[in-house]
Structures are given as C-alpha cells and as structure tokens.
Amino acid sequence: MRQNILMKMMSLLGSVFLIFLMIIAGVLSDPQTKLLKEDCSQFPIGTDIFDFSNNFNKTFGEIRKQLSTNSSIHFATAVEMNVYGMVQCRNYLSSADCVACLDVAWTQIRRNCPSGDGGHVIFEGCFLRYEARNFFTQSILVTFESSAGVCSAIKSKYDAVTFTPVVERLITDLVAATPKINGFFAATTRPVLHGGATATVYAVAQCIETISRKDCQSCLTIGYNNIQSCPPASEASSADAGCFLRYSDVSFFADKSVINITPHLQGGKRILTSKTAITWGIVGSLCLLLLISAVFLWYQLVRKPKITERGDMLGIDKLQGTVIYNFKDLKSATSSFSEDSKIGEGGFADVYKGIMKNGDIVAVKKLAVTTSKAKNDFESEVKLISNVNHRNIIRLLGCGGRGSKLLLVFEYMANGSLDKFLYGEKQGSLSWKQRVDIILGIAKGLAYLHEQFHSCIIHRDIKSSNILLDHEFQPKIADFGLARLVCDDKSHLSTKFAGTLGYTAPEYAIHGQLSEKVDTYSFGVVVLEIVSGKRCTSLITEPVTISLLEHAWNLYENDAHSDFIDQTLDPKEDIVNNAKKIIEIALMCTQSPTSARPTMSEVVAVLTDDRSIEQKPACKPTFF
Fold first, then answer.
1. Is there a contact between 77 and 84 (Cβ–Cβ < 8 Å)?
2. What is the pTM for the complete model shown?
3. Closest of 111, 142, 123, 132 to residue 32, by C-alpha
4. What would the mean pLDDT of 419-444 be, rounded to a whole number?
C-alpha cells in the first residue's frame, strides 16, 4: 500500500516537474513526441524504490544538463549509483526541442514503468533508455525485442507510380550510407514529380552512437525491411533500441539539416530493389548451378574423397542473429587452440579465450563430434540459446566449424566460473553483497527460462561451474548442452537421466521425471554452496557423515544457521539475518514433492522483498 502511494506521488511530482521545465524553457517549436515504441523491464527494482527514483532523476538531470549546455550534441549518457541512462535526439532537432523531448520521455517512462529496473521509450524526436546495470558497452541490438514498422493509414498526396520508386530508392540509399557517416546520422531529400511540377520526399536514418558500424548496418537493414512495403503511404517509420528510419511526403526537418549522402554511396553496397534482386537472383542461380555441376564432376572423376560430416551447420545458418565465424579466424584468435588459451574443459568440450582481429575478446567452445551425443549437445545448445536473450544468461555470438570440430562463440566472462570463487583458487574473495547479487541473478535467469521465454526451457545441469561471472561479478547461466524444451500442455517429461549428481533432484535421478522444478532443486543446492563456501558433494562429520544439504537442514532446525555461513565472511548481524532468509529459500527449493517447491519467479519475489519468510519450510528436503 505504501509503495503504491509512493508511486502515485512520484508520478504526480514528475508531471508537475515536466510542466515546470516546459514553462521555463519558453515556447518550443516541435519536440516530435509522437510515441513509436515503449518497453519496460519485467524485473522489479532490486533496491528501495525511493532511492532508485532519486538516482533515476539525478541520472537524467545530468543528461539534461549536458544537452542544455551544449547545443551541438544530441547524444548523452550518465550514471548515478545503480541507474545508467542514455538519451539520443534526432540531429535536426534544436537544443530546446531535444531537451523538451527528453522531458516528456523522462516523465512517461517512470509513469509507465514505475517498478521496473529498466526500460526504453522511443519518440519520433528522441530515444531514452535506462537500466540498473551498465549497458553502454554492450551490443544494443540484442537487448530488446525486434522492431516493427509503422505505416501511415493515409496515402501520399503524390502519384503512387512516381512516389513509390522514389521512396524505395531513397531509403535504400540511406541504409547504405548512414553507417559510413560519422555519428551514424543522415537526413536527405529526393525530388518527385507531382502534377507536372517537382515536389520533395523527406527521409532520415540514425543509429545509436555506441554501436558498431556493422550493427548499425544490420539494424537499418531490418528497419528497411519493416517499411519497404509501406509506400504509397504518405509516411512510415521503424524504430528500436538501436536505430531509427523514417520517410514522409511532408517536411519534418529544416533544409539546413540535409546531408549529401552521394559520396558515401560510391562503391558502397545498396539494398537490392525487387526487380534488381530477381534479375541478379536468376543470374546468380545459373552461375551457382554451373559451379555445383563442375565441382560435382571434379569430385566424381578426379578426387572421390569421403565427405567429412559438417554437423547441422546448414540449419544453424538460418538462425536469426547467429554469426557464422570462419574457422581460420577462430583458430588464429585462440593461438591454434593452445593450452595457454584454454580457460575451461568438460566431458565433451574445451573452452578457449580468443582475441579476434578487431580486438574483441570471446570465449570459443570446441566440441569434437565423435559421438551422436556430442553432436546432439551442439545442436541443442545452438538452437536454444541463439533465441534466448537475458542479462543473466550467456550470450551466443555465433558458431563455426570444420569437419568434426564444431565451435560455439560466446561473450567472454572475465571472472570465469562461480565454483572457483566458492571452493577453488579464488576461495573467499566474494563479499556477502556479491553473493546475494549472484543468487538473485541466477534466480532471474531461471525465471526467464521457465516462465518468460516463449517455451519452458529446463537447463538440467545447474551447478556452480555452469554459472559464469562477468567483470562486474554479474552471473550468467551457461552450458545449455543438456537443456530441454517442455510443451505448454505437459507438466513434466520422462527422460533418461543427464546431469550432475549432488545437484540433481531425486525424482529426476531415480525416476527420470523432468520438470522445471528440477532446476529449482539444483538452484537451492547452488545457493547453499554460495552461503557456505563448500562443495555440495563435501561430506560433513557431526558425528556421522552427512551431505551439505542435510548439514544445512540440521543447523537450520536448531536455529544455528550462523554456523553454516562461510567462515571467510565477517559474521555481522545483518549478514546472519539475511543468511537465515536465504538458507530458508534454498531449503524450500529442495523439498519434495515438487509441488512444495516455489517457482523461480516466486523465488525472485521473495529475494527482492525485505520481509523474511513467515514460516519454516513445511518438511525437510529429500537427501539423495
């Protein structure tokens, strides 16, 4: 109740603040605040909502100051504590209009996303994004859902026969030229015949300044595909978190903003029009057919070698967003997969640190497909994770391979796996706050897989060595080789056991009953490892030999949970109280039957709530 009142008060204060800002700004021309797209994070603010809102206002207050004091800039970022903010205005807006657009976006996003830890809003004139983590250096194109084109319902006042091809060529050239222009912005015009006279069509393209030229090109190409069928509509636009594309038969920017894009088209690649594409497609098909025939004859008459299996690379090529890497480039990046480059190994794959030619650092997972299981693991991991997009799940950048050697390329995690910090060479170096943040991050990642992805994904192998940590110690769930999809009409699957003993739920290990609650059980075990700093398979003698899970239950029952906390931590009162709540959650996750375990979204809700669990777990966990 108190939180709802605070939200309403902040929303009202925000509206009043906006009105005040617009009054002191004077009469504005056109900040172009027509809404195109808005998204809010599904995850709640992890800190006090009042503090978060205060930091939010400070962040965008600083951005507003930057835009107000320097009329030459239209892009700014700022950070205050746990709030990272970014704003970009269209370059043709005046400084006053840019600030006015920011003010409207600032107020609207907090009104419509009062409890989310991130979000973005896109107007015709500006773009605003905020998150409770640093997103400035990451690819902005993979953060939000795909863009969509918006076509005007009004037909152009110009003749469709002349208008449509002009618009098609105009946005084609814009998409080709903009990534080559400093600042990734271009506004241009084209003449169109109308009633015997010459009229004008207007268009603009823009990418976020922090993305790469390649990502800008890819984003604008998607935007082109979104609106290419709009003419003869009078105007259309496509917008997402990475770029913006718009055309209109009415002027929406001043003549002084027009940029000559012709120099950037010479020798550049253009998007093919439909007629040109058909022509080149026919020519290309004939050439390809001749080439295939020649190669086939050569192999039949001269070589006749045994063709080496490639795996399912052809199917992988079709996945959206997955880059096919050249094998030689990955071999060079990892120093020929040398031992010095190796950063991890498992039963079916080794992982190497790779430094690409452009300086990007990646993790390369190499699988030798000598068994059907290894091949299935590779296919499963690619098909699943290529479509998964969450801050607490490892991001697949692409794949490659040669013969039986198949490669997956992931974002590089600077701090490696969690197990090293719990009971490995870096034992005792994690603070209590870092441990709590890691627990929450894992819970959010699993909640996404189980409940927020379009199909329920069961990881089946949640353990400390499969939790990777980035440079800020944010956790990311990795290794989806054993993951399985569950259809909406099934509560569980019966399947052959695959996983790691010690982390595996008894109903799955004994009876093969697989549901998302198997991951919940494994999460509970990992939480106990994080709190205690001990491996789950470690045996504790007291006086009989028992497992870590049973040890945690015995201490909890006797209200001696403080003895379970990692001895490398300072047992302050606030840590002890917080640890009790987290141990309770872990024990709830390991109960049987599975219906007694909470869902991962419920776990996230409890972890982000300051209140403790009202009662102890209903029964002791099943020790296996």
1. yes
2. 0.51
3. 123
4. 93
